[in-house]
Amino acid sequence: MRRYLLKRMVHLIFVLIIVSVVIFAMIHLAPGDPLIVLLGERATTEQIEIMRRAYGLDKPLYVQYLIFMKNTLEGNFGLSIRHGVSAGSLIFERLPVTLELVVASLIIAVPLSIITGVIAALRQNSWWDYFASLFSLFGLSIPSFWIGIMLILLLGVFLEWFPVMGRPEWSLWEAAGRCLQGEWRPLGIFLHHLFLPGLTNALWMVGLVTRLTRTSMLEVLNEDYVRTARGKGLREFWVISKHALKNAMIPVITVIAIQFGSVLSGAVITETVFSWPGMGRLMVDSVYNRDYPVVQAGVIICAFLFAVVNLIVDFLYTLLDPRIKY
Question: Residue ranges of the domains in the chain?
Fold first, then answer.
């Protein structure tokens, strides 16, 4: 196990280096000058050159990359061109806000899709199976921004059930802390604001995981060990939960881990639609403003989170299938 963990950490370092090279090259090859965006078109050549030297943009690209890597190792990721503060501080300030949205999306998507997929497999060719297939197709086909706009119009504007924009001043973690003091209202208000963006970001994943769960369950239900368990007289609940579902979850968990990156990237669109002040919205604004350090920092952190989630999933395999050892 220790050897495997060390091997994965080495792989993670190589992945982050490759990601850093790719994002550095792409953002510097993109058209546009961040200093012109910052200073405006009326800025003089002298003003632009002064700022270029101040931010180190006058140095050769390989020197800029080495400086970027040095700043990354220090954890500050360099100075934001637009905001004039550490890019790392901007990202880490917005990251918990995005993680609130990602966690809400996973809490909605994973139980809903697994339950729907299992019932569809157990009731194959029934109306529930057809409904699950149609629901999966809907989730996979419709763009998330369109779903968000429709939810805003229907549940926010027409029915007035949910707020359509923004986020409370306090965080989800602060609201949860107040619950320990007996104050439940802040958490209720926060979840009320979080529901629509969380649902919007979750529906695509619901469609994919529902379809995969159904397919995986149908394959497992035809295995010999499931028929043997039924032949021994085990209750259907235990046959499904202990034998069938546990083995069917291995490919499902793999896809959920892979889709963590999609949920994280989907938060960019969702945060823009719902004016959710997270890292995704900061990244969009930084791309528009050619704020190199912030974009680079955001991509590096997303790649790191994705790699860590996949490492955790590898260890979950050993809990689901004792035959898997590292």
Answer: 13-87, 91-320
Please choose, from the candidates 301, 290, 283, 279, the residue with its C-alpha nearest in 3D space to the C-alpha of residue 77. Answer: 301
Cα end-to-end distance, the chain, whole Å: 5
Give dist(CA 207, CA 113) in Å, integer.
7
Confidence of residue 3 (pLDDT cuts 50, 70, 90): confident
pLDDT 10s digits, 24-34: 888 888 777 77
Q: Which helix (H) or strand (E) holds 288?
A: helix 279-288
- φ, ψ (nearest 5 deg) of residue 79: -95, 130
- pLDDT tens digit string along 296-317? 888 888 888 888 887 787 777 7
For 273, the enclosing helix (H) or strand (E) is helix 245-274
Query: What is the spatial distance between Cα 169 and Cα 171, in angstroms, rounded to a whole number?
Result: 7
Mean of pLDDT values over 48-54: 79
* Confidence band of 44 (pLDDT split at 50, 70, 90): confident
Pick from 154, 174, 173: which is nearest to 164 by CA? 154
Contacts 24+ apart (CB under 8 A), 81-85: 81/34, 81/35, 81/38, 81/55, 81/289, 81/290, 81/291, 81/292, 81/293, 82/34, 82/38, 82/285, 82/286, 82/289, 82/291, 82/294, 83/291, 83/294
pLDDT at residue 256, as a whole number: 83
Class of domain 91-320 (CATH, top level): mainly alpha
Q: Note the pLDDT tens digit of each residue in 53-73.
A: 877 777 888 888 888 888 888
Query: Please, what is the angle between helix 245-274 and helix 185-221, to 10°?
Result: 140
- 61: CB partners within 8 A, 6+ apart: 28
- What element of type H or E holds 120? helix 87-122
* Residue that has been written with the tokens 């046959």 in this structure: 239
How does DSSP classify residue 80? -
